[in-house]
Specification:
By secondary structure, this protein is an alpha/beta fold. The chain contains nine helices and eleven strands. The protein folds into two domains: 5-171, Spore Coat Polysaccharide Biosynthesis Protein SpsA, Chain A (Alpha-Beta Complex), CATH 3.90.550.10; 177-286, no CATH class.
């Protein structure tokens, strides 16, 4: 029996992923809502064929898109699941999620943390600090909300306690190196804008998520350029990323010297030349 759960999927040109995502959550979710940012491929057609409800909305940020989804879906189920199109529940994690939802309808459990295994260049990554990648993506309706920020937005529950799944789910965010670079260039602009906004508003950073707090309050205290190098050494050597072979080296190198260094360059550019990066806007508009 499916859980009393509504799954929300945010999409933009995800025809390569959407079928697999819906198939993985179909046995668990009573209702599936896809909020699409005017895809130009067959994303909406495929999702509708598979029984999902479709909402269309112009993309600003992932957080605001998700808030729109919740506010306009008339959700009546006990639980909400936020899952990305490139994520999959496995048969084991789906059954575990279903059982936890059904067994905790009236308990003080209000949030469920899901474990993900990343796949990059066709290889599952188990080292470099990326396994298991944990996210709180399932929570009781009305007991949680998403942080309104451009990057690293998290679901936060207001009360009760959280539990964690034992079985892994899957994350297939790799389409091609070209797509990965374009997406992370987009992410770097959003992160530079998020950094500037937080710095301007408070002069410091208050974060409930530990990893984000470390990034904002410790990582950004290190000298520009040096911090990206330290990040690579930490991921590849200290967190044993080298054990994932060539794919692990490429992943650690790109994360540090493409993505994280690019964020630093954009922060430097903003300070020196007054360049303004915006939090909102779709990937397509940034190309």
């Amino acid at each position: 029996m499916a859980a009393d759960l509504t799954a929300i999927i945010l999409t933009k040109d995800e025809e390569i992923n959407i079928r697999g995502c819906i198939e993985s959550i179909f046995p668990v979710a009573k209702r599936i809502v896809v909020v699409d940012s005017y895809s130009k491929d067959r994303t909406v057609e495929i999702a509708r064929e598979m029984g999902a409800e479709i909402l269309s909305h112009e993309f600003e940020t992932h957080a605001r898109q998700y808030k729109y989804a919740v506010e306009n879906s008339a959700i009546e189920t006990k639980w909400i699941l936020r899952i990305d199109a490139d994520e999959r529940l496995t048969s084991q994690s789906a059954k575990e999620l279903e059982d936890i939802c059904n067994e905790n309808m009236e308990s003080d459990v209000t949030g469920i943390i899901v474990r993900f295994k990343k796949n990059f260049l066709g290889k599952d990554l188990y080292h470099g600090g990326v396994y298991p990648w944990k996210k709180l993506i399932c929570y009781k309706t009305g007991k949680g909300d998403i942080e309104d920020r451009a990057m690293d937005e998290h679901i936060v529950v207001f009360e009760g306690r959280t539990v964690e799944l034992i079985h892994d789910s899957l994350h297939f965010d790799f389409k091609s190196i070209e797509a990965w670079i374009a997406k992370h260039n987009w992410y770097s602009s959003k992160e530079a804008a998020d950094y500037a906004a937080k710095k301007k508003n408070s002069g410091g950073f208050e974060e409930r998520n530990l990893k984000t707090w470390i990034k904002m309050n410790l990582y950004y205290k290190l000298p520009l350029g040096v911090r990206a190098h330290i990040y690579y050494l930490y991921r590849y050597y200290f967190k044993l990323g080298f054990l994932d072979g060539k794919e692990g080296k490429i992943y650690a190198f790109l994360q540090a010297y493409w993505y994280r260094y690019l964020v630093d360059v954009k922060i430097f550019e903003s300070k020196k030349l007054g360049t303004v990066y915006t939090e909102s806007g779709s990937l397509e508009k940034k190309k």
